[in-house]
């Protein structure tokens, strides 16, 4: 009797009935770890495709788990001759676009360098590191202080913009590994030379160069410092 009265009260309130119906429908995929608005798992998939029709039809790759990605990633300096596809680049850029930034101001730009001559120029600017030229594609991450300084003044110029570009590069590096590709983070370069290759505007500066390709070999893990040298509680 009590249950029937409760049902009747819900039916007499159409907005409440609609809300409860939607909640019940969406709760099942949530409990299964799925996105109720699509068929891509939240934990192992990539963000929903943007509205661009070409990107909407990209085939979704199968991703390893997050822990496998971070534990198995290595710096790759030797690349196989296989190309990096447009779809793979788009997936990496989509992942980068989800990265957090200071004030959500996204004070970075990413330049995709595929032309062999430009990659060779970029390798020269990176102090002769030929993995930049040998990889089929390189991403150059550029900080854009003007986007951050408008709100944060010198703090945005001196710190936040560089952090934004660094976080974006980290997302790109891990996304590439999740796609079965290899990368090598490069920070040793002549700023002015890299800026000239990718056409940085006044005030902009490169932060990282990320050559990307199919690994020719998988290096072994390198030693890590002991936890006691890295992690501290409350203070150093």
Short description:
With 236 residues, the protein is an alpha+beta fold. The chain is built from ten helices and four strands.
Strand order of the largest sheet: 1-2-4-3
- How large is the share of residues in beta strands? 5-15%
| Sequence of secondary-structure elements | HHHHHEHHEHEHEH
What general form does the structure show?
Answer: globular
Total count of helical runs of at least 4 residues: 10
User: What is the average of the pLDDT values?
Assistant: 82
- As a percent range, the share of helical residues equals 40-55%
Give the arrangement of secondary structure elements.
Elements lengths: L1 H10 L2 H18 L21 H4 L9 H7 L13 H12 L10 E6 L2 H10 L5 H4 L2 E7 L1 H34 L3 E2 L7 H8 L6 E9 L13 H4 L6
Antiparallel strand pairs: 1-2, 2-4, 3-4
Keywords:
single chain, 4-stranded antiparallel sheet, 10 helices, 4 strands, globular
Plain-language structure description:
This protein is an alpha+beta fold. Helix content is 47%, strand content 10%. The chain has 10 helices and 4 strands. It has helices at 2-11, 14-31, 53-56, 66-72, 86-97, 116-125, 131-134, 145-178, 191-198, 227-230, and strands spanning 108-113, 137-143, 182-183, 205-213. It has a 4-stranded antiparallel beta sheet with strand order 1-2-4-3, sandwiched between helices. Helix 5 packs across helix 8 and helix 6 (116-125) packs antiparallel against helix 9. The radius of gyration is 23 Å and the shape is globular.
